[in-house]
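Hello everyone,

My group is preparing for a crystallization screen and wants a predicted model to guide construct design. The compound we'll soak is pyridoxal-5'-phosphate. Before spending weeks at the bench, it would help to have a computed complex in hand. I've included the protein sequence and the ligand's SMILES below. Output in structure-token form would be ideal because that's what our pipeline reads.
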Amino acid sequence: MNAPTAKPNDYAAYPDANGRFGDYGGRYVPETLMPLVHELDAAYSAAKADPAFQAELSGLLTHYVGRPSPLYLAERLTAHFGGAKIYLKREELNHTGSHKINNCIGQILLARRMGKTRIIAETGAGQHGVASATVCAKYGLPCVVYMGAVDVERQKPNVFRMNLLGARVEAVTSGSATLKDAMNEALRDWVTNVHDTYYLIGTAAGMHPYPAMVRDFQSVIGRETKAQVLEAEGRLPDAVVACVGGGSNAIGMFHPFLNDESVKLIGVEAAGEGMETGRHAAAINGGRPGVLHGNMTYLLQDPEGQITEAHSISAGLDYPGIGPEHSWLHDVGRATYLTATDLESLEAFKLLAELEGILPAIESAHAIARLGDVARDVGKDGIVVLNLSGRGDKDVATVAAHLGMAI
Amino acid sequence: MTKARIDARFAALKAENRAAFVAYVMAGDPDYDRGLEILKGLPAAGADLIEVGFPFSDPMAEGPPIQRAAQRALASGMTLNKTLAMIAEFRKGDQTTPIILMGYANPLVNRGFAAFAQDAAAAGADGLIVVDIPPEEADPLADALDAEGLSLLLLSTPTSDDARLKVIARRTSGFAYYVSVAGVTGVKEADAATVAPHVARVRAAGGLPVCVGFGIKTPERAEAVARVADGVVVGSALVEEIAASLAMNETVTTRVLSKVESLAKAVRLARVASPTV
Ligand SMILES: Cc1ncc(COP(=O)(O)O)c(C=O)c1O
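Reply:
Good plan to model first. Here are the tokens for the complex, ready for your pipeline.
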């Protein structure tokens, strides 16, 4: 897996039929799940090609989610950084407050098509849990959300929102009690309830077809952005920037631009307390390839191949892996992965609030933390689009605590 | 050479007309020394084959008992190298009891399949089960194990249809392992009557002896399943004995081995007592 990967002619043609992006991806799941994984793959392929499915999806994205989300020229932020013109793709204005709903709407339609009667999901920040609970409420399906006990504590408002939406939140205490453990428990539930249960994975990771499917559902972000920038500026942007947890908002932004090689694709991983401390969540910048949760990808692990705990102020980025397509885009050099620490992200959180009147999710704030560097690098005549993946209301308690204030 | 050890054991069991009792333990649970003591005691207590788990931080198909066993083993400093060292130590006193390693992909990916296969063969292991490597992903690992004469045992499950059972059989040697419940280890219980037709399907697909595991905890269940299968695997119930003896400050080895004795005895009696499935 360390052989240099050849540069492909068509970046958008992946994964292959086995779910591989180069060496990454695949289907590393117990045999009990394998027939279901094939069933899901077939069902998704059929749905993807079915105009009725696409029409229903598109109608819901318009009338339920509120798409297209605006592309907003952030003038004061642009002036502040003194570099390229900065546009924000306003995913935080979507129903439920983040990009997660784009994927949930797609997958709930698929689950219904497949005749599944029970939905399970994992969540970190709780945004995917809220989005899952939302679509389950809309379609009257029971929903169980697995959430690390640590995250239940730091994202209380979202736990309550999920409960209001009728979902059951299971606090997971095993391991580090964060997102990776929530995903383990969700997989254990799935393997136990194979016949009626649909696993609604919240990011572009896991076993094939999830990384490709979630990417497809999130690619509406990049498609809209492309059209909106062309409309506003008559040309493509020079760079797009997004934070990376599992990688769904980033790949959704990147994918429609993969073959536009003039557009730099920049992901920002969580550096936690600092890369040098080892307490971070940056799988590409601080990890090695391995197998976890059904796919081969960059992972935080010790020299024995045991997965190590991720550390980030942001529950949504606190995951030791990354979607396999990002691992591949990194290896082939099509995308660049930077990092931002907890403190830099808190500063960025305040900056956006003060300059633009927008509270970003602490996840999205990681991307904002690198935005100045990117904007100056691109230069004054350039255009940069930042994917504002979510809103920060859920994070005010965390931010207050770091500022030494009680609310 | 090593595949031969599994084949020889099943040939001997067939001659005795009885099913195998297969004991699962987690290497290094609760620590290296006591883990080795348990391992050494298993054959005399009635284990015909032994599955040795190597711990992984994120065991997605395990229920709480084996999750906790892995945590205990990791806390005691257990590694893949030490697991193989433990097997080499065991082999000094026992050249006939087959040992099957069982675990998850990442420690093996981390080591490299070829290097792992060489070291495992040198240590005296006979086969390998990797829970998160289904047939679709098995070829590179199976090739590496083949080169060292080690068996890969791909799992069959209640959700595997006959076509999949054939694919599984193609890259499985030694014996076939049937996971009797859809679920994680140590939670649901297997029922012999439900299991029987599946065992027949698995046997028909590959012609190998079929051992049943994942849902067997008591001597009564073990006895019932031993009437319909070629072997019975018990894991969670054994590691729970370790947890219980630690909690009560008892001698771990004695307690685990006496559980093994009662289960092995039940399996031995199964075909002598009247077959009421
Ligand atoms: C607002 C927001 N942005 C980003 C993420 C990270 O996920 P992903 O990398 O899949 O976009 C999350 C996850 O919870 C989130 O809530």
